[in-house]
Design brief:
By secondary structure, the chain is mostly helical. The protein contains eight helices and two strands, in the order αααββααααα. The chain has two domains: 5-123 and 218-239, no CATH class; 132-206, no CATH class. A two-stranded antiparallel ribbon has the order 1-2. It starts with a helix and ends with a helix.
Length: 240
Amino acid sequence: MHETLEIVQMRSRKIIDGNLKVYLALSSLFLVLVLGKFSQILAVVIFSVLCIYADWKAYLRIIRIPAFFLLGAMAVILFTIDGKVLASFWIFRITEESTGIAFSVLLRSTASLSILSFLIMTTSIPEFITALSKLKIPKFVVEMLMLVYRAIQILFEEISRLDTAASSRLGFLGFRNMIRTASLLAFSAFMKSLKRSEIMEEALESRCYRGCYPLLDSRTEGAGISALILSALFLAGWFG
């Protein structure tokens, strides 16, 4: 059975729960962006441990694609910045400046990726929006986030259903068939998602929707651990 992201978010083990996990992730992300490398190294360790504790298999799936992208970006940085040459191969050169910049970008990106992975694995979109609403975010922004989230869900459901139907009829057998089927799927998914969005709008109006979505009311846990993590990141960056 295919495990969706929503299932991972519901089943993941959480030391920190409620709106607090959103505030912790956003605060930690800000700290690692403005502080030094020691806070970034500590953030990688702490949030990687939290992600592994939550669901290590899902964590590996989530970071796999960003990790390949990040490695490619590091290779570009290493071979495109001029300076004192440390090593060379054919037309490629690695310099002192390029290694320093590549390490700095890698560390900052890895720390940010670890924090965002923790947020993705433990927090659903409704929970995230609920936490933002507590910060007095304008209501129209909350409404747009919920509508966009639901529209994306509808689009993915339609694409998955149409893809399964096309695969069962050998629609992707051969290059020409694959191109033709993919174009038809894109058009059909767009039209069907629009139709389902209209149905959703009618359902909302029939339930007297007036622009205010119901928000989740979850219990907050792990305040002490959150305070300890933020303090450790701040001290590591300040004294590092």
